[in-house]
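Internal ticket #5521
Category: modeling
Description: The requester needs a full-assembly model to guide mutagenesis choices. All entity lines are attached below as received. Residue total reported by intake: 410.
Assigned to: D.W.
Attached entities:
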Amino acid sequence: MARWEPNARNRLVDAALELFQERGYDRTTVGEIATRAGLTERTFFRYFADKREVLFGRSGDLEKGIAEAISGAPATTSPLDAVVGGLEAAAAAFPPRRDYRARQRLIAAHPELQERDLIKLASLSSAIAEALRVRGVSEPGASLAAEAGIAIFKIAFERWVGGAQPRDLPAQIRAALAELRIVTGSTAAPTRRNTSKKTGTRAAD
Amino acid sequence: MARWEPNARNRLVDAALELFQERGYDRTTVGEIATRAGLTERTFFRYFADKREVLFGRSGDLEKGIAEAISGAPATTSPLDAVVGGLEAAAAAFPPRRDYRARQRLIAAHPELQERDLIKLASLSSAIAEALRVRGVSEPGASLAAEAGIAIFKIAFERWVGGAQPRDLPAQIRAALAELRIVTGSTAAPTRRNTSKKTGTRAAD
DNA sequence: CCATTGATGTCATATACTGACATCAATGTA
DNA sequence: TACATTGATGTCAGTATATGACATCAATGG
């Protein structure tokens, strides 16, 4: 018999989600979360740096997946197409949108959670920019393409989760990309030559 | 004789900046800031919702200025051009970049301050999107153009404050816009530095 | 002359978070 | 077997942020 029940981390996440639903985010203390999970407040802070973080556990995985998808894109793919391709690939593996509804409601209602959400996206943006630089895209193009990708993802995700009629997240992403190209005044065909200036030197995937 | 020294708010801001420089952000308590400003901790929290906010006092003005500039743009101006025009106009009125250096260093070194910075930009993005909607731009185009504008501003501001050679902030903004157009596939050109001052980047050959 | 206002102070308290140290089953190892 | 080590957890004390309730008192205006 194990000394402790397993999955302490998951128990904390579940307890937190339940309690946030039942009583709201600010009227739930970390101590209450820990108690429901059969642990103590001190242990909560060993798993999560702060109270907000319990809602953002898996954000690192996404980062890794997207960066890999970008690295794997053909060398001829343009920066933004590589980014959006990576986003689509990651999005295809997302759980059904109903799993995000409660969480998104919480975030929308609490600025401190929005802040955390935003910094996770900023971190994702940095990872994407880095993946582009490895492909030979120079600054500030890499950062701008990354930020554009994040903008696309934000709007697509928002509409996917919140929209009335269910539409595929990858489809939302493609739609947002097309719309961005319209508002930026882009007229060129979607797939163009790589704008990288070091195309020939990129690593062979 | 007035009952209290005037400019309590500014005194708090100045005291905070001084102390953050002297001892670092986390080793400065709100009580110390208040004391240096000749006030009490409680009064600090009457002027600022939290400790971070003391570094973000004027962000509301920017929002208003940009929104107005967008509303004032000719009806024929494209959404993104209207946004960037607004940003340029606001940027032209910025204090010299050395006034931002210390603050940006602080923010860069403290995730909690980055979070606050990001949510201010998100708020600016919402205001811009709203101004575009008033102009008749529909969703998701309005939000995407707004986010694209923020992306441009972020990169331009970063390079303006941190860059080695001083280059006009409006010029940085125009350069970032040109680069974004390249990277979204608006023009097919390499990501070379555009040395021309005002014109958009053309295909170099 | 007096009531009101408003910026500030005082005090009490909740909650988030951290450091230091204790506990003790499991696990390895002489 | 005996014993040292490890690692997840608990206990406890403390600090800092943030908020509510109430007090103060010069200035202001009728």
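Resolution: model delivered.
Comment from assignee: Confidence is low (pLDDT under 50) at residues 187-205 of chain A.
Ticket closed.
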